Amino acid sequence: AAANIGVVGLAVMGSNLARNLASREGNTVAVLNRSRAKTDDLVALHPEAGFVPTFSYEEFAASLQKPRTAIIMVKAGLGTDAVIDELVRVFEPGDIIVDGGNAYFPDTIRREKAVRETGINFVGAGISGGEEGALLGPSIMPGGSDESWVTLGPILESIAAVAEGEPCVTHVGHGGAGHFVKMVHNGIEYADMQLIAEAYDLIRRGTGRSPAEIADIFAEWNTGELESYLIEITAEVLRQIDQETGQPLVDVIVDQAGAKGTGAWTVQTALALGVPVSGIAEATFARSLSSHPEQRAVAAHLPGPEGEFTVDDVDAFIEDVRLALYASKIVAYSQGFDEIRAGATEYGWSIDLGAVAKIWRAGCIIRAQFLNRIADAYAAEPDLPALLTAPYFAEALSRGQASWRRVVIAAAQAGIPAPAFSSSLSYYDGIRAERLPAALIQGQRDFFGAHTYRRIDKEGTFHTLWSGDRTEIPAVDTH
Ligand code: NDP
Per the database record, which ranges form the 6-phosphogluconate dehydrogenase C-terminal domain (predicted)? Predict the structure, then answer.
C-alpha cells in the first residue's frame, strides 16, 4: 500500500483537496471518482502531486496504508450514502471514513451510528472556503470519535488554513458536531451577507453614491473593526464593470438570491431548539422574498412613502450605517453561538465555543479579525450566557446603538427594506428589556387554553377562571 490518505470524489472540491493533501510533506494520496475521466484528468494535469490513481473501491482500499483513511467529497445526500456503502464493503475495523461534503447533521449522526456498527470510524467534517480554500487551506470542522482524531488530526492540521500560527481545525465534538457547526457557520454567513447588502442599499439609495464609490467605502471599512473576507469581496464585486454593457455588474445581475439550503437548515434547527436566530432567519427569508418575481411584480404597485429619500450629512450617515452594521453583526454571531451551545446540550456534544471562533479566523467564508474578539470573550468566560454581553461587545453595542436606531428609522421612513438591521435591533432591545409583553401572552394563553401562568411574587402555577367569576386558583403544574 503506497498511500496514507485517499480522496473519493474528484469534482472541484475533491480534486483541490487532493492536491492540497499531496502538496504536504509525507502525504501520498490515492484518488477515486465514480466516472473515470475526472481521475485521468487530475492525474494527467498534476503529475507533481504523485497521485495514486485507482478505478475501483477494491483497488482504492488496497492502495491505502492501515488504518485506511478516506475523505469523501461527493454530492451531498444519496451520493454520500452510495460511497459510504462501497467503502464499508472494502474497509476494515479501525479504518476511517471522512465525509467532507455539506451533509445535514442528522444524516451524519445516522451515518456515524450505522458505520460504527461495522467497527469502522466515521467522521463528518464540515469544510469551508470554497474551491480556493480546499486547495490552499480551508477551515475544517470535524466531528467523530477521539480514536479517529488521533490519525486524522495531524493530516487535517497539515492542510488547514493557518491563523496567527494556529491551524484552522479542531476536533469540534463527537458524532455530528462538526457538520452542525459547519451548518451554523453557513447560517452566520447568510446573516453577514444580508447585513452587508442592506448597508450597500441604504448608502446607495440614501446618498446616491455609485457602486464604485461604495466599493471605496467598503475597502475603507475593511481596514477597521469590520475587516473581513466578505467586506473585502463586496468591494471587489461593487467595483466590477460589466464588459458587455459598461454598467456596474451589480446592476446587470438579476436581483434574486439563490440558496443551497444550509441557511434554512440553521433556522429550522434553531426553531426546534428554541433559539432565536432572528438575524439568520431574516437573511434566509430575504433571499426567499427576492426569489418570488411573480409576487414582486404585482406588489410593485403598492405605495411607498411620499417624496425622495435624501440624507443631509452624507459622511455622518455612512458612519451610522457602519456602526449599525457592526452592531447587527454582533447580534447575528451571538445568536449563532447560542445555537451551537444549544445543539451541544441537546445532542450531548462537548463543544469549545472559543475554539470554534478560532478555527473560523482563516480559510472559511466568514473569516475576520472579529473572531479573535469572540475567542477572547469565551477565553475570559467559558460559560458566557450570551456573547453580546461580553465587555468588548457590550461596549461596541453601546457605542453603536444611537447610529443603529437612526439607520433603522431612516430605512423605515425611506421605505428601504432592512430586515436584518431592524430585527437585530429588536433582538437587542428584547434581550435587554426588564419586562417583556410575554406576560400578556401568558395571560392570553391562560384565557383561551388554561395554559396557566407563574407570578412574580409567589411560587407556583396559577389559572384564572376566565369564563367563571375570574378568581385565581392554584393550578397543577404540568411542566
Ligand atoms: P458536487 O457537489 O458537484 O459533486 C460532484 C461529485 O460527486 C463528482 O465527483 C461525482 O462523480 C460525485 N457523485 C455524485 N453522485 C455520486 C454517486 N451516487 N456516487 C459516487 N459519486 C457521486 O462537487 P463539489 O466538488 O462542488 O462538492 C463536493 C462536496 O463538497 C459537496 O458535498 C458540496 O456540498 C461540498 N462543498 C462544496 C463547496 C463548494 O464551494 N463547491 C464548499 C464546501 C463544501 P462523477 O464525476 O462520477 O459524476
Answer: 178-467
The grid coordinates of residue 126 equal 464540515
What does the pLDDT read at residue 476? 76
- Please tell me the predicted confidence (pLDDT) of residue 477: 56
Task: Give yes or no for a contact between 3 and 52, defined as CB atoms under 8 angstroms apart.
Answer: yes
Per-block mean pLDDT, blocks of 10 residues, the chain (479 long): 94 98 96 97 97 98 97 96 98 98 97 97 97 96 95 96 97 97 98 98 96 98 97 98 98 97 97 98 98 98 92 96 98 98 98 98 95 97 96 97 98 97 98 98 98 97 97 80
Q: Is the CB of 46 under 6 A from ligand 1?
A: no
Ligand 1 binding pocket includes 186 (Cβ within 6 Å): no
Q: What's this model's pTM, rounded to 2 decimal places?
A: 0.96
Main-chain dihedrals φ then ψ at residue 472, nearest 5 degrees: -100, 135
Residue 479 is predicted with a pLDDT of 52
189 as an active site residue: the answer is yes
To test the ligand 1 pocket, which listed residue (7, 17, 55, 73) has its Cβ within 8 A of the most ligand atoms? 73
Q: What's the pLDDT score for residue 478?
A: 55
Determine whether the shortest distance from the Cβ of 76 to ligand 1 is under 6 A. yes
Q: Residue 74: CB within 6 Å of ligand 1?
A: yes
| 358 catalytic residue (yes or no) | no
